[in-house]
Structures are given as structure tokens and as C-alpha cells.
Amino acid sequence: MTSNHLTELPSVDGWALVLGASSGFGGAAALAFARAGMHVVGVHLDRRATQDNVERIVTSIKELGREAWFFNVNAADEERRREVLGTIQRRFLDRGRRERLRVLFHSLAFGSLRRFIAEDVEEQASQKQLEMTIDVMANSLVYWSQEAVERGLIGEGGRILAMTSTGSTMCWRGYGAVSAAKAALESHIRQLAFELASRKITANAICAGVTDTPALRKIPDNARMIDTALRKSPSQRLTLPEDVAATLVALVHPCTYWMTGNTIFVDGGEGHAG
Questions:
Q1: Partners of 155 in the β-ladder
Q2: What is the spatial distance between Cα 13 and Cα 135, in angstroms, rounded to a whole number?
Q3: What pLDDT score does 213 carry?
Q4: pLDDT tens digits, 81-107
Q5: 79 to each of 73, 91, 119, 239, how far by Cα in Å?
Q6: Cβ atoms of residues 148 and 101 within 8 Å
Q7: Given this model, what pLDDT does residue 148 score?
Q8: Average of pLDDT values for 263-270?
Q9: CA–CA dist 146, 150 (Å, integer)
């Protein structure tokens, strides 16, 4: 797939804040938002070995004539979150004009993939691991949204978007903690949509089909998941990060103001095929 799909939509301006911007859905979204006309603030956590991909994304955004402010920090850390949002606020104020985030996109994929019950109890998911998984992959969405609203960084016309998965309602080996996090994330989206409606800010979850990302490759039995998805897909291919990114761009447009509180499937029909 190419970015040509995005040229069919009117361009949008403003800023996109992408949490998990260095690869997978976050990386594709950052590029798609830039192609659509937006500047990008990216938050990611990468070691030196994976930094090259971050630099590629930043370079591509700048080549499109957009600004790219990227922060290599832990998005689940309260102090780092405040530093990033404080920096954004100061930079916006320094420009001497009113600027806001048009979209806050949550695509953090970091959590425990241990079984709840194992023969060796040392291999079971611990309380700390369960709490960390839910905090990173679900609760952090609320914390970033709260502070962005409190600082006046997102307002009327804003979009809050977050990546969920079919695992929120299904059982896979080793996926229990992540499944709980995704279920919580969808609940958080519904509540944010309800509470932010008066501010004219929407909130929606995006459920992609099986997508070959670094996060998928860490899930036990991922090869079987891929085979099953290919068999079920009417198009006989996996979902691509770019497929999801195109949908994200569409949801940022003003005409989607009445779409909120949903879990939107972007899977090419995979989830409905036998």
C-alpha cells in the first residue's frame, strides 16, 4: 500500500501527539498525520539499536515540510509525561499564537506476556507485572488525556484515539495481562467520550486486524495467529499499519465529530469471516 489513499481526503492542520511513535501503528500514524498536513510530536522509548528507525521517521516528516518534536522517554512515567506536555505548552506559547493538539493517539505496546497459571510459579505473571501492563497499555491513556485537557493543549474539535485488539474479548496463550489492559482501554475510551462530549472532544478505540508488527512477534503462537488471519481475510492478506493510519487520518477530519465512544474495526473484514 502507498500513501495515495491519504490524498483522497482534504488536508488537515494542527498537531498530532503520538504515543509509541517509533514503529508499528505509531510510526505509520506519525507519517500519515504528516502527509495529511499535520506537525507531529512523537513519544517513544528506544535503545540505540532501534534509533535508526526513529530517525528515518523524523527525517520523512521534515521532508514533508512538517515539524517533528520527538522525545525518547518512558510515556508511562509521570514525571516524563509532565516534562513532555510542559515542553509542548511552552513551545506553543513561545510562538505567540494559539496552537493546540488536534489529536492524541495512544499506541503503547509494552506488557507482560506470562501465563496466569504455570507449572513453575516463578514463570507466572506477578502482581507487579499485571499492574504495570494495565498501567502502560490502558491507564496511561487517561493520564495523558487528563493533563492535555488541564493544560489547554487539546480542546474543541480534538480527537483522542487508541489502539485496542480483538484480544480484549478473546483468550490467547500468555495474553491474559494484555487482554485485561485492552478491555480496560476500551472502557476508558467510552468514559472519556462521555466526559469530554461537552468539550466537543471525541474518543474512539481502533481495533486492527492481525498486523505483522514488532509487538505481534512477541506474542506466543504468533505464527498461528498470522496463518488464521490470512485464511479468514477476504483479501487474503494481513492488515498493514498503513491501513490503520489511513483510518486515523479520516477520523481526525471535522466531519467525524459525531463519532465517539466506539471501538472501530479496521481489519478488511477479517473479524467477520468464517
A1: none
A2: 31
A3: 86
A4: 999 999 999 999 998 778 999 999 999
A5: 10, 18, 38, 35
A6: yes
A7: 98
A8: 94
A9: 6
Listed by start position, the domains of the chain span: 12-267
What pLDDT, on a 0 to 100 scale, did the predictor assign at position 5?
59
Residue written as cell 489492559? 181
Superfamily of domain 12-267: NAD(P)-binding Rossmann-like Domain (3.40.50.720)
User: Binning pLDDT at 50, 70 and 90, where does residue 214 land?
Assistant: confident
Query: For residues 87 and 81, what is the distance between their CA atoms, to the nearest angstrom?
Result: 10
- Is pLDDT above 60 for 3? no
Grid coordinates given for 3: 500513501
What is the radius of gyration, based on Cα positions, of the chain? 18
CB of 43 closer than 8 Å to CB of 128: no
Maximum C-alpha span of the chain: 61
| 9 band by pLDDT with thresholds 50, 70 and 90 | low
Please report which residue ranges of 64-158 form alpha helices under DSSP H: 78-94, 127-134, 140-150
Which pLDDT band holds residue 7 (cuts at 50, 70, 90)?
Answer: low
d(CA 5, CA 241): 13
215's grid cell:
509487538
Contact 181, 142 (CB under 8 A): no
Judge contact between 97 and 69, C-beta under 8 A: no
Query: Do the strands 159-164 and 15-19 form a parallel or antiparallel pair, or are they unpaired?
Result: unpaired
**Measured between alpha carbons, how far is 162 from 14 in angstroms, rounded to an integer?**
19
What is the mean predicted confidence (pLDDT) over 154-166? 97
Q: For 160, what's the count of Cα atoms within 13 Å in the CB-facing half-sphere?
A: 34
